[in-house]
Design goal:
The protein has 84 residues and is an alpha+beta fold. The chain is built from one helix and three strands, in the order E-E-E-H. A three-stranded antiparallel β-sheet has the order 1-2-3, with no helix packed on it. A hairpin with a 2-residue loop joins strand 1 and strand 2.
Length: 84
């Protein structure tokens, strides 16, 4: 569990907390996504929401670069005057 969490805004929970207060931390994939005390809950800034989108964009970029590399390599290897 992390020793510090980036919550961002002080409302609604952070203003009510005092040193020594007990809270529940919601963990998801090693990320602290929310902090709760009683019925009051507050989301944190630490969330993996954009992670899958980034991984997908990176995979698409690698696939496109690889496809272009195969096309360019095939064009060079086929020699002058021939088409694929």
């Amino acid at each position: 569990m992390p020793r510090s969490i980036d919550i961002g805004d002080a409302d609604p929970l952070l203003k009510r907390l005092r040193p020594g207060d007990k809270v529940r931390v919601t963990l998801w994939r090693d990320y602290s996504t929310a902090v709760r005390q009683g019925k009051v809950s507050q989301e944190t800034a630490e969330t993996p929401e954009g992670e899958p989108v980034f991984v997908c964009a990176l995979a698409l970029a690698v696939i496109c670069s690889g496809a272009y590399g195969l096309y360019a390599g095939g064009t060079v290897l086929s020699g002058p005057g021939t088409t694929l």
